[in-house]
Structure formats: C-alpha cells, structure tokens
Design a protein that fits this description.
The protein is built from 11 helices and 12 strands. It is of the alpha/beta class. Bound molecules: zinc ion.
Length: 325
Amino acid sequence: MSKYIVGVDLGGTNIKSAIVSEEKKIIVKTSVPTPTQEGPKAIMDAMANVVHELMNKEGITTQDILAVGIGAPGPMNWQTGIVYSPPNLPGWHNVPLADEMQKRLDVPCYIENDANAACFGEYWLGAGQGCDCIAVLTLGTGVGGGIVVFKKLLRGIDGTAGELGHLKVQRDGRLCGCGSKGCLEAYASVTGMVRTAQEEIEKGKKTILTEMCNNNIHAITGKMIFQAVEKGDALAKEVFNETAVWLGLGIASIVNMLNPERVILCGGMIAAGDILFNPVRETVMNNAFEVPAKRCEIVPAGLGEDSGVIGCAGCALTRYYDEHK
Ligand SMILES: [Zn+2]
C-alpha cells in the first residue's frame, strides 16, 4: 500500500495544498483563498480543512500519510516549527505552526521557508530533477531564493541561508524591503521592474505605458510592461532588458559562488521567455567565470505555480526519512 505526503503552501493570497505519493506522483491538488485578515487560528483551521477535504476526496486516511510539510513566509525556525512575524500575515507573532497543525491533522508536521520549499520542489520534481546542485530564484513582488547543494537544501547555521534576493548588486542603491540598500530584489523583482519604468517616465521618456496607466504611473504593473513590450514599445523593451541585466548580474555571483548545474527561475515573469532569458544568459556569460558560466543552464521552472506546494511535500518526506532512519 502506497504512503503519501501532503504539501501545504501558505501564501498571503492563497492556501495551496497537494497530496503526493511516496513514489513522487502528484495525486491531487487544490487552492483556496487565505482568510488573511482573520488571524493565525482561522488560517490554520482553513489549512487543516483543505487537507481533510483532499484526503476525503481521495479516500486517504491519516494512517496512509507519512508527514505534512507546510511552507510559510519567513522569518521562522524550521526546527522548532515556530513562525515569527511575516510581513504579509497580519497578527502572526511567534506562532507554533508545526505543533498547531500536528494537533489538527494528527500526523508529523514540518515547516519550511516558502522560497526554500519552492527550490526543493524544483529539485525534487521540477526543472532541477537529476541535478546535485541548483539555485532557484522566484521573481514576484520580491525575489525569493533557495539553494540545493549535494542534494540537500542549504540552510546555514541559523536556517537563514539562500536569501538570494538580497545579494548586493549596487552600492548605496535602491532601498529594499529588507531595510538594506542595493539588493537584487530592488531591481529584478516585478516591483523593481515597475520602479525602473516609473523612473524612466519621470525622466521624460515617451512610452505607451503612460497612456496604458491613464497618466498615473503608480498604476503601472508588470503585466502592462510586458504588454507594451509585445506592442513594440521601445522604453518597455529597455526596461525589460535592464531588469534582465540586473538579474544576470545577481546570477553571475551565484554561478561564481556555487558552480551550480542549473539556475531555475520561477514566477509570472518567466512567461516572457527569450526576451527575459537571453539577456540574463548573456549577462551571466559576460560576468561570471567561464567554466561555471558555461556549465550552468538558466531555465524556467518545471512545476509552474506549484513548485512551492510540491516542495513542501518533498521537504517533509526528506525530513521524515531523516528522523526515521
Ligand atoms: Zn534586501
């Protein structure tokens, strides 16, 4: 009889959940809105409900499940299972997430930083399958990062390793969400790209974006920039290229530091394809050492939007095996 692992990815907008077999087959998955404003208890109840619904649907009982992996925004302690105060989960303060979920689900529960979980998901079942060493960057409002070396998540001594979005790419550069300046995230995230477009428009550059946002540059979105690129807008192309170059500079440092087989990019922005990946690859070739730059493939995520939730299951299975060897 096959055993299963459950992944639950807690985001500020949605709770995603999936059941995966021990043989790495995705059995079922779903997504529901996060009751963000209702606080930790309501959110944990909602997560438990989602898991119970999936189990009922598939006729899977608690006895069939080895472990549940829960991905959440940091900061957190992955070993004690406590989530501190994530900026996008209001009311959360030192929540014993692993223990609380274990009470609700009656199976071993493990928590992971969501970006690390996404990285592990790509290594386990996505674009990093078969590799020993990968880095993953998730491009969204911020830039999430994760690293797998020798088939294990690189956690560092306090579990805070892999914050690739906060590699410094510019001295005294843009203010970053982390409070520091000049981080990769401030330039290469969707938010950073929008900011680049706004700065160029403020300098007086002409673009159809001005019309698209009804002269309100604060309404510009990443999607608008991509649409403007498709319509052949010169400034939008320049902004997209600039963003890709910043990303390439960050990746060049990752390539020099880790010598990875692959760097995998996740997030909505990767739908842009070659217009993103080509300048990224070129910048890496021009800025990293030749041997690791030639070795490293820079590729889109293999699991689309599901890297995180699948990775939660993968991390939980790994930790379950480690504890039950
Ligand atoms: Zn930062």
